[in-house]
Design a protein that fits this description.
The structure holds 2 protein chains of 2 kinds. Chain A is an alpha+beta fold. In chain A, about 25% of the residues lie in helices and about 30% in strands. In chain A, the strands form 4 sheets. A 6-stranded mixed beta sheet of chain A has the order 6-7-8-3-9-10, sandwiched between helices. Chain A has a 5-stranded antiparallel beta sheet with strand order 13-17-14-15-16. A 4-stranded antiparallel beta sheet of chain A has the order 2-1-4-5, with helices on one face. Chain B folds into 2 domains: about 15-55, no CATH class; about 65-265, MetI-like fold (Orthogonal Bundle). Chain B is globular, with a radius of gyration of 23 Å. Classes of the chains: A alpha+beta, B mainly alpha.
Amino acid sequence: MTPAIELRATRRAFGSVVALDSVSLTIAPGEFFALLGPSGSGKTTCLRLIAGFDQPDSGAILLDGEDVTNTPPFARNVNTVFQDYALFPHMTVAENVAYGLRVRGIAAPERAQRAAAMLDLVRLGEFGARRPHQLSGGQRQRVALARALINQPKVLLLDEPLGALDLKLREEMQLELKGLQQRLGITFVFVTHDQGEALSMADRVAVFSQGRIEQLDTPRELYNRPQTVFVAGFVGSANVVGREAAQILTGRDRAFAIRPELIDLLAAGEPAADGYVQCAGEVVDVLYHGASSRLRVKVDERTTLAVARSESGDGGDLVVATGARVRLAWRPEHAVPLQD
Amino acid sequence: MRSEQLRRPAWERPSLFTRVMAAAGLVFLHAPVWVITLYAFTTEDRTYQFPPPGLTLHWFEVAFARDDIWQSMRLSLLVASAATLLAIILGTLAAFALARRTFSGKESITLLFVLPIALPGILTGLALLAGMRTIGLEPGFWTIVAGHATFCLVIVYNNVVARLRRVPPSWVEASMDLGARGHQTFRYVLLPQIATALLAGGMLAFALSFDEIIVTLFTAGHQRTLPIWFYSELFRPRERPVTNVVAVVVILVTLVPILLAYYLTRPDERGSE
């Protein structure tokens, strides 16, 4: 099957800053794909190269098997939802949505009809005559979505689509975007710095750091099997133990990640079961979360591990308070080895 | 908003002295204009005797009958229109080139564009005259237009550049993304944004050109624009009220576009900016 998007050894530098360092990437048709990373990691540059707002210094970009490296944005079958929505303030909502048809020379009656249908799709049927500034943030977001979809692109690009929304709206829009993507069956590529958003919406996630892809995997694999120290630290809430600390704890010179809920908490003198990795430490603080609590345990000068402890049932008689001496233990196979 | 403004506490209100001085300043600026207006109606044609011995519309009749006034008026309007049109085209082009892109030498080019407004008119005029002589250009209508365009361009450029800087780059990208060619993005997205800036800049440029005298003196041949007509009238004190009549007309002609420009560039509450 021809990939919807393909990047071949794409490189882009701004002066001496390498924004994207020889990135290769293949996105399948119909995939919901996330570009995840902190700011400056190259994820937005990657999106802008796919949209055509920027050109790579070297490498190639293919859309649906066709080399579009030198194709201007207006000739690419790709549309974008901008972070600031970029709605035109001097046009009504309906005119904004119909803009893509207008510049393609489609007659006014058909434009109006299709724009109305698009607005219905995003549940803004009655808002066509309003101006963008008369809408709420969430509504503007949906107008931007309708406007980007009216040209029936094969690929929809979304730049931090939920960044400007408040928490409740963000959760709603997550479901809405996911539902829309499944109904339309087109490829969605979205940029985010929020790992929760990437994990909950995407089929696959590319984690960017310093212009490179650190890991490209399904959300489940990314969460359970991070490959590098960076990914383990950025995705999920695992403890990342660096090489030196790992040497002391396990005797092996290899960084690893261990999730808080997989660490057992034992009383100071209590021996762990056979084969467990174990160590002693001192409780730094305890945060009570209702169903569980979260402790931070200092095991040596430089290493503090987070431990999740269920508040229901097992091991309930162990009293843990700040300053208490405890033992920690985990099964060696639960520790995920990492590359630096 | 303004009507809901609360009464300010006593210590924030201006003192009587401040108010008197402000009023005096305004009177100083505007009284001469009223003097000219008043003496356009006087029956005395030689001195500024106060109060005027009588009022008459006679001088309007005299002024309207004089051919030289009409010719100068017509020339001034034509020059101002041509200079403004030229400035709108070139100023907009310059603004688009310099508003967002960065390239080496950009700062110097920006300075070169803005310099003519800061340069004394006498230098601009002298330089233009010397330049015209060098290439053997005969002074005439178009040399006046070119001279005026040097500073009109700055007005349009400044207005448009300020407006373009407030247009987020994502609007242009969104337009391209949706399939618009360059000219469509200009027509549908950018032009509506800069339209009022163009109108305001154009009107200011028009008003500036209309009463320009120094550059005109150097670049005109035998033509007399309205300001030059005024200037030469000073040496012929006969029928002085006629000069005042023309001045009143000029005030009205320049006031209208300036007021319009002021209203058009007010910040817009509706958020269409």
